[in-house]
Amino acid sequence: MVSLRTRVLPYLVRGVAPTRQMIMRPPRGQHWTAFVAEVDGEIIGWVSAFRNAGSTRPVGEISLLHVHPEHRGRGIGGGLLTAALDHLTPLRLPLLRGRALPESLPYARRRGFLPSREERFSALALTALPPPAVPPGARLVALSEVDPHHVYEVERDASTDEPGDVATDALTYEHWQADTWDNLGLDREASTGVEVDGVLAAISLVNRDGTRMWSDYTGTRPAHRGRGLATAAKLASLRRAAASGVTVAYTGNDEANAPMLAINERLGYRPVAAQWSCLRETG
């Protein structure tokens, strides 16, 4: 499964251990499941389906549907999508969200999923990174040294106004801990925060697979924005990751998230792919 995803979606970084963890111990309350397609014992397609537990809006998610390029055009993707829809149907969720590559939008429309928002994926080679500029009164700290409840509180507060189809307005600590903090791919030493007067104000999380990494979340509490804290946290996390052997970093952002896109562009990220959030109302 990991080799298939790396082949089809190389910018979505998840290693073997966290993938096994996701399958064997999915977060509670999400009704999470996954389906694969096999040919001669080889996995050539994957999709997962679950209830979004981080929002007060009842939404079903269809995530990471992808098929090996050499096996497309045979109805495999359609079979996976049907299996995911059948899994979500008993939950009676009024809204479903899937994601589609630009070339797959005509197919998504035929299945009732209408394009809503575009997401940009970007990559950065971790070479010659400058030192972060830390404002007076602030200090960088590895998140391995921080109480995870404080990390959760920053993400909870910072994500409330993040652009997207579904608001993250019901993120509990238990869900966040299972999905983020206990993720075996999280590099807590590289993940970095910025403290201001002893209070954690900004974070940048690193998920790692060998020499590749994914910036899982970067954000600043609303009261501390406009001081470059998110930039400092992200740059410091990139430098820590590079020092431990990471050579390329990936990230993804809604095209309407101008502040985060500006940070990434200043750091040298370049677009490598795009996908669309697509919605289907079920009535």
From TrEMBL:
Gene3D superfamilies: 3.40.630.30. It comes from the Bacteria. InterPro entries: Acyl_CoA_acyltransferase (IPR016181), GNAT_dom (IPR000182). This is N-acetyltransferase domain-containing protein. Signal peptide: none annotated. Residues 1-131, 138-283 form the N-acetyltransferase domain. It holds the Pfam family Acetyltransf_1. PANTHER family: N-ACETYLTRANSFERASE.
